[in-house]
Amino acid sequence: MEAMSEFDAIVVGAGPAGTSAAIKMASSGMNVLLVERADPPGTKNVSGGVLWGNDLEKIIPGWEKQAPYERVVESKAVGFLTRDSLINIDFRSRRLAEKATGHIVLRARLDQWLARKAREAGAMVISGVTVERVAVQDGVVKGVEQGGDLITSDVVILAEGANPRVAIDSGLRPPLRDEDVAIGVKEIIKLGEEKINERFNLRGKSGFAGEYVLGFLPEGVKAGGFLYTNKDTVSLGVVVSMKDLRKNGSTYSFDIIEEFAEHPYIAPMIEGGKVEEYSAHLVQEGGIQGVPKLYGNGYMIAGDAAGFSFSNGLVLQGMNYAIASGIAAAETAIEAKSKNNFSEEALAAYRERLMNSFVLRDLLDFRGIQGVTWSDTVHRVIPRVMEGVFEQLFTEDSQPKKHISRIVMDALSRSGMKTSDAIIEGYRMMRRM
Ligand SMILES: Cc1cc2nc3c(=O)[nH]c(=O)nc-3n(C[C@H](O)[C@H](O)[C@H](O)COP(=O)(O)OP(=O)(O)OC[C@H]3O[C@@H](n4cnc5c(N)ncnc54)[C@H](O)[C@@H]3O)c2cc1C
Question: Residue 44 to residues 22, 122, 162, 280, 305: CA-CA distances in angstroms?
Fold first, then answer.
């Protein structure tokens, strides 16, 4: 007779994917072990971070009343920066705040709270332990290995984040390619609540989230910047294309965050602030091409480890995909337990669940979006053309005025792009976005 497993499920990684999976399974009575390398959970994690959507409600009813979030997004900006200018679209709406669709969070706090919720639901949570690999016998995952010890379970959920060493070292997914990831660098800057409210025109719990295209970087290097207001600090960071950075060879991600912070239209927002934390982390960027095989005999992969994230230059979302995929993996595990069948065929229901949710639908629908977010058009042409157009429009030089169409054509020609190419490129971008 086969020996019983020590746990029904082992979850590797206590980020939003892993904790969501653990909470869901433990709440349904499963015997769950959640293993996290950081002690306490969250201290190795980096996120902008706006937690978009309301997926936590499915596992923690009324989560918003208890969760340690900083502010709710009421003011959202999307801007293009050139060396001298900022072209900004600023959307402020009380309706955004009422819908509470974006919660600005600090991961160290959120993840510790989620890990506590997993414990309260009945999961065993071990922190400060790094899983080395999964144990595979006859093509079936039987548990995890760490320091020569084997801990057995019927199913393992790998939720280890954007650098999935366990899945790669265990042969469950291919190594990352440069195009699958970007590098995120982030500072937390202390400003004080009053100053933040004054500077960003905010009241109470309302918050500001800004995303910027850094159109002033050296040729070949592309990056986006973000600035989010927490209660009394701001999170400022950049996400840099790994592929470009490696090709360029002489620009470093830490230089780019400096340049972003010192930009004439970013610097005043953080003036007088004190950097309290500095961190760097990989960001999943691969889209559907970067998604590995998601399940097999005795295992499933969730969250960033599975390549689930979405970015269209206007928002960067990963935590909501992590939570939704963690829940989908947990539901599949609960079903598998009820049938005592953790085979690849049984766990195929995980993919079905993801296909019926925004997780895989978005990745499939927005196939190729990276071609827009990391394009020369977005990072070079649009910022320069818009700068040229607005500068002309708002400069009075006592000369006869030009029609806007003429101003746009002149700016396009200065950018080196033909009008016909601009129309085709614009159409392609609209379709992909
Ligand atoms: C700079 C930056 C800005 C971002 N901004 C946003 C944003 O604004 N909004 C948004 O939704 N998303 C954002 N993201 C993406 C978001 O952070 C991720 O999509 C999300 O954290 C994925 O959750 P996860 O649970 O899959 O992985 P993670 O949050 O990375 O959690 C994985 C966990 O596994 C642990 N772990 C790893 N290996 C092991 C091991 N071998 N053994 C034990 N434990 C292990 C890690 O310590 C970690 O706690 C941002 C990311 C970065 C880097």
Answer: 19, 24, 12, 10, 15
Cis peptide before 175 (omega within 30 of 0): no
Dist. CA 304 → ligand 1 center (Å): 7
* CA 277–ligand 1 middle distance (angstroms): 17
In a domain, 95, yes or no: no
- Among the candidates 261, 284, 307, a domain finishes at 284
Same domain flag for 52 and 166: yes
Residue labelled with tokens 């699958």: 180
Statement to judge: residues 42 and 154 lie in one domain: yes
Is position 166 within any domain?
yes
Summarised one tens digit per residue, pLDDT across range 184-215 is: 999 999 999 999 999 999 999 999 999 999 99
Give ligand 1 pocket residues (Cβ under 6 A).
Answer: 12-18, 35-38, 41, 44-52, 130-131, 159-162, 165-166, 184, 186, 237, 239, 281, 283, 303-305, 309, 316-320, 322
Q: Decide: 79 and 72 in contact? Cβ < 8 Å.
A: no
Structural domain tally of the chain? 3
Mutation pick for ligand 1 pocket among 47, 129, 241, 278 (CB with most ligand atoms within 8 Å): 47
- Domain extent, residue 116, equals 7-68+107-174+292-367
Strand stretches in 58-148, DSSP E: 69-81, 86-92, 102-105, 124-127, 133-137, 140-146
End position of a domain, from candidates 367, 402, 419: 367
CATH number at residue 316: 3.50.50.60
Tens-digit pLDDT profile for residues 286-334? 789 889 999 999 999 999 999 999 988 778 899 999 999 999 999 999 9
| C-alpha Rg value of the chain to the nearest Å | 23
Are 230 and 348 within one domain?
no
Ligand 1 center to 130 CA (angstroms): 15
Domain match, 280 and 337 both: no
pLDDT digits (tens, 9 = 90+) for 164-190: 999 999 999 999 998 889 999 999 999
